[in-house]
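Supplementary Methods S3. Input chains for the assembly prediction are listed below.
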Amino acid sequence: MMQCPKCHAQMNTYNRNGVQIEQCNGCRGIFLDYGELESLTRLESQWAQQAPPAPPAPQQAYPPAPPAAHAPAWGAPQHGGHYGHRRQKGFGRMLFSS
Amino acid sequence: MTTTQTSVVHDLGTLAHRLSHPARTPCVCEPPQVLADRPDGTVVRSGAIVAKAHAADTDRDALAARIALAADPRLAGILLPPLTAPAPAAPTARPVTLWPLGAPVDPTDPGAAPWAEAADLLARLHRTKPPFPLPPMRGPAKAARAVARMRAALRDDATTVSTGLRDPAALSVLAGWRALPAWARGEAPAPARRAGALCHGDLHLGQLVRHPAPDGSWLLIDMDDAGVGDPAWDLGRPAAWYAAGLLAPEDWATFLDAYRAAGGPAVPSHGDPWPALDVPARALTVQTAAVALAKCAAEQRDPDDHEQLMIESCARIATLPPELAPGPAS
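Predicted structure tokens for the full assembly:
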């Protein structure tokens, strides 16, 4: 698991169109390996040539930084997942106990 | 232990029942109902009366001050006041207090959870000047107790005796614990800038009731850990849930906005609240994960989804270089 070179929080790996991208859980910065920027640029130009463009696959999108939502560097990646789950299950016992 | 506990439950039920309707009136009461039964708090209800037996090792003077706080008119509308009733005839092994019945948060309806009301109550509590000398808020002491409980449970658990505290989850909890400043581990007084506010000390959704039931205003209950200390501690548990991904961002925003709107002093009124919340939220993450691992060991089961989130949060805390932790780590 990588650590962010800027804020030292943990980075998570996301796969976008076959390109591995590391995003920091803390500052949301993105780290690209050698050649990955070129891969993305190439994908982008291919994308632009398609008509009409297909919508991007949502499950592959890396999470955008929510505006003005402060969180600690050690916070969980705040992107979907757990919350829908929680709403379905109702509360955990945890929210009601010491 | 079973016998003792059963006898406590019986005695509390009898006491609550005796007070719930006048003597020599026809009794149509339901049997007393056990609301909680733990060594640190056994709570039994009969009619509109709730009787609570506190922990056997309770500091009785400190408890008396905490109960007096709940009864103080300056805390009316914030804390549920106790019932004034004659003390039990014989001294009991565990101190007993009496309370009016309130309606708790509905555990089946997350949308109706009173996040804003809880935050407003905390802000008003934190803004109230302590009306008389009070013991320290016990949040850090509870966190220390949880970590000790985890250590003991993992040592006692025959199934993990070979690995013991090499369990990665337990090691994460201990690493997160060691990175906390001494005051947050209950080993030193809180720094002056973090001390002095009236605090609840153990906030969660089970600590709110509507009184009078079912439609009265929300009030805070359970004074066992209340006292003076860092008001950010009372925000630490929701903050820890949010950081772990357990509390939805919109619920956290509701809670935080309401706290700020009510003038709560634990966080700055604008900007990033995390410099103030970081240490308490870490401590409560560690505490919650420690309790979860202790329960899992005792019940010989794996952590559930929510417990797993808190354990993962501890693992992230443990990966942060200590120099990033605010304040001295010793």
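The first strand of chain B starts at residue 33 and ends at 38. The longest helix of chain B spans residues 274-299.
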